[in-house]
Design a protein that fits this description.
2 helices; seven-stranded mixed beta sheet; 354 residues; 4% helix; five-stranded mixed beta sheet; 3 domains; mainly beta; 22 strands; Immunoglobulin-like; single chain; elongated
Length: 354
C-alpha cells in the first residue's frame, strides 16, 4: 500500500452503534448499524471516486502452505491445508542450480496463501445521493463527510468459528468499506471484524439425563450417567459413574473430554477438546469396584452453539452445508499396557447464555 493509500485510509473511520469496534459481538436477528466518517487529507487535492460502499461479509477462510524442495535434480512439492497433509508430487527440476556442487545443497521455498469462500454478503452504497461529475464523485480536500449504515443479520446465519492455529479453517464476519477509484489507482479498503452467533435457548428444548455403559474383553465395565443433554458455557455437568473390574485389571485412569466437531464447506471434520480432565480420586488402580460423582466445569468463553439447531428449518439445513458444529462428551477407560481402552460417547447440545 502506497503512502497515498495510507493517508486515505487513515481519514476513514468506522464506528458501531453501542458496540466497540474491536471484534464486536452480535446475535443473529440483531441489527448492525453505525456511521462512517471521512476527512479527505489526500495530497491537498480532491479525491475522485467511481463509487463507495460498505459490505457485511461472511466467509470461510483457510490457509495453504506449499513447500517446494529441489535436490539432485528432483523437485518435491508438499501442500498442507489445515495442518493436514494434503498432497505431494515429484518432478524434475527445470534448471540446475547455479552454484557449485548444487546436488549437495537442497533449496527449499515456502509459499503461504489465504483462500476465502464467501457465503453471505450485504452491500450498501453510501455515495449514491452525491452529485456525479463525469461519472465520478468528488470528495473535496479537507471536508468532513459522514454517512450512516444499517444491516439486519438473518437468523439462519451460522456462527463465527475462530481458528486456533495458522492453517486451520475458520468462519468469520466483517464489515468492509471500499472506496472505488479509477483504473489508474488501486481501490482503498478498510474493515473491522465481527463475531456473529445464533441463539439457542436451551429452555425451549426437552431436558433429560443420558445413561450409557460399555465393557471390554477383559470384563472391565463402565456405567455412567450425565445430568443433562444441554449445556451452556460457564456451567457444570454432573457425572455419576461406576466401574466394575472383576479381574482386577490395571486401570491407569478414566479420561473425560468435551469435544467440539466442526466442519466447514466440503472439508472433513476437525475436532478439538474444549475441556479435558481425569476422573478424580482413583487411587487404587486394581480396585474391583469404583464409583463416584464429580462435576465437569465448562469454561465461560465463547463457544459456538450446536449448529444447525435441533429443530432446523430448511434454511438452517442449507447453511449446515457451510458450517456444522457438534459436541460430544467422552469417557475413556485407559488401561495399563496393551489392554484395549474403551469409551462412552454422549451427544451433547451446546446452547447459548440467556
Amino acid at each position: 500500500m502506497g503512502a497515498g493509500d495510507s493517508v486515505i485510509n487513515s481519514g476513514l473511520t468506522i464506528t458501531l452503534a453501542d458496540r466497540p469496534t474491536d471484534n464486536a459481538f452480535y446475535w443473529t436477528g440483531e441489527r448492525v448499524e453505525g456511521i462512517l466518517e471521512f476527512v479527505n487529507n489526500h495530497h491537498h487535492s480532491n479525491l475522485k471516486l467511481k463509487g463507495a460502499y460498505i459490505e457485511l461479509i461472511g466467509e470461510i477462510a483457510y490457509t495453504t502452505q506449499q513447500t517446494t524442495t529441489c535436490i539432485n535434480g528432483i523437485q518435491t512439492t508438499t501442500t498442507m491445508n489445515s495442518n493436514i497433509f494434503q498432497s505431494m508430487h515429484t518432478t524434475s527440476c527445470l534448471e540446475p542450480l547455479a552454484i557449485p556442487n548444487h546436488t549437495d545443497f537442497p533449496v527449499t521455498t515456502t509459499t503461504v496463501q489465504t483462500h476465502e469462500l464467501p457465503f453471505f454478503n450485504q452491500r450498501q452504497n453510501f455515495l449514491s445521493s452525491m452529485e456525479e461529475i463525469n461519472n465520478e464523485i468528488i470528495l473535496q480536500h479537507g471536508i468532513y463527510y459522514k454517512w450512516s449504515f444499517s444491516f439486519d443479520l438473518p437468523c439462519h446465519l451460522p456462527p463465527s468459528l475462530p481458528a486456533d492455529s495458522p492453517l486451520e479453517r475458520y468462519a468469520q464476519y466483517f464489515l468492509c468499506v471500499t472506496l472505488k477509484r479509477n483504473r489508474l489507482h488501486r481501490n482503498n479498503f478498510k474493515s473491522i471484524p465481527l463475531t456473529v452467533c445464533p441463539r439457542l435457548n436451551v429452555l425451549h428444548y426437552p431436558h433429560y439425563s443420558l445413561e450409557l455403559e460399555n465393557e471390554n474383553r477383559k470384563d472391565v465395565h463402565l456405567h455412567a450417567i450425565i445430568s443433562q443433554n444441554f449445556i451452556v458455557p460457564g456451567t457444570n455437568i454432573s457425572i455419576q459413574y461406576d466401574l466394575r473390574n472383576p479381574k482386577r485389571s490395571m486401570t491407569d485412569r478414566i479420561e473425560v473430554r468435551l469435544v467440539q466437531y466442526r466442519q466447514m464447506s466440503s472439508c472433513g471434520t476437525v475436532q478439538k477438546a474444549i475441556v479435558e480432565m481425569d476422573v478424580p480420586y482413583i487411587r487404587k488402580p486394581r480396585e474391583e469396584y469404583l464409583e463416584g460423582t464429580f462435576n465437569l466445569k465448562i469454561s465461560d468463553i465463547y463457544l459456538p452453539p450446536t449448529w444447525p439447531h435441533p429443530s432446523s428449518s430448511s434454511e438452517l439445513v442449507l447453511n449446515s452445508n457451510i458450517v456444522s458444529v457438534k459436541y460430544e462428551l467422552t469417557m475413556t477407560v485407559k488401561l495399563h499396557g496393551t489392554m484395549p481402552n474403551f469409551l462412552l460417547m454422549f451427544p451433547i447440545t451446546m446452547g447459548t447464555p440467556k
